[in-house]
Specification:
Blueprint lengths: L1 E5 L8 H11 L6 E6 L4 H8 L3 E4 L9 H13 L5 E4 L2 H9 L4 E6 L8 H7 L2 E4 L2 H7 L7 E3 L18 E7 L7 H10 L6 E7 L6 H10 L7 E5 L4 H6 L3 E4 L9 E2 L1
Parallel strand pairs: 1-2, 1-4, 2-3, 4-5, 5-6, 6-7, 8-9, 8-11, 9-10
Antiparallel strand pairs: 11-12
């Protein structure tokens, strides 16, 4: 069975791209997987490192340049007439459909509605949502094409507890959706009554000024000595395992503003 995974981003923009790479890494041996990207980038290098073939097919923003991209898509998918196409973004799904994909799956990872949702519901064979909140926000309840499959969570590696200052931990993308500065605000309210520390790990998307904004917010905090900005890390499991609470401060997703 051939499954073609399509990502409209060649960069690691957020958890969606990382999730695709994890899916590719743990597929059963009887699945022949390929990854389609619009251009060269970190996704290409990381996919090849786990033995996945990568193909480059254009995916410009939908508009005047769309017609020019349909030809390359049709020529590409003609090579794999029986493949399942798994699109990781709405635009990627539209291009796969225009290119003649015979079996098309769209993976919806964001709860915010997209203007393409109605079209995708009609043309896709199945839509996978990463939560019931995403499914309710974007598609009719109980629709037979819509399925909820949660993102995989790696099993924790149990180690002897390490004595350290109690921690609040925030891990994620630094942007206006995930809102890491809310973790700083919460910690400022909590700090007079609790002697722990706040650790914020992650990074801002390419070209974003959010890193500078978050850094400035921490520098201005009266408890800045107890706040650590770690930046990107591949050891998120260990970091979360060290936490007393993990903070989720998103303002635009169904699970937002909780402490776990």
């Amino acid at each position: 069975m051939i499954v073609i995974y399509v990502s409209q981003h060649a960069e690691i923009v957020g958890g969606g791209e990382r999730s695709v790479l994890e899916i590719l890494q743990y597929l059963p041996s009887d699945v022949e997987a390929r990854l389609v990207l619009p251009q060269k980038g970190p996704m290409q290098r990381l996919a090849r490192a786990i033995g996945v073939d990568v193909d480059l097919v254009p995916m410009p923003p939908l508009g005047v340049r769309t017609l020019a991209a349909i030809g390359p898509w049709r020529r590409y998918l003609r090579q794999y007439p029986h493949a399942i196409v798994h699109a990781n973004h709405a635009r990627a799904a539209v291009y796969a459909w225009l290119g003649g994909a015979r079996r098309l799956v769209f993976h919806a990872r964001v709860a915010a509605q997209d203007r393409l949702d109605g079209l995708l519901l009609r043309v896709c064979d199945a839509i996978v949502c990463n939560s019931h909140a995403t499914a309710r926000a974007r598609f009719p309840e109980g629709h037979p094409k819509v399925h909820v499959i949660y993102n995989g969570v790696p099993a924790p590696r149990l180690k002897a507890p390490v004595k350290r200052r109690a921690r609040l931990v925030w891990v994620g993308r630094w942007d206006a959706i995930k809102r890491p500065e809310l973790a700083v605000e919460l910690f400022e309210h909590l700090a007079p009554h609790w002697h722990g520390e706040l650790v914020i790990a992650g990074g801002a998307p390419p070209g974003s000024s959010y890193r500078d904004q978050l850094t400035a917010r921490v520098v201005q905090s009266p408890v800045r000595a107890r706040i650590k900005l770690c930046g990107p890390t591949a050891r998120t499991g260990e970091l979360l395992a060290s936490a007393r609470f993990a903070l989720v401060t998103s303002m635009h997703e169904g699970f937002g503003r909780v402490a776990v």
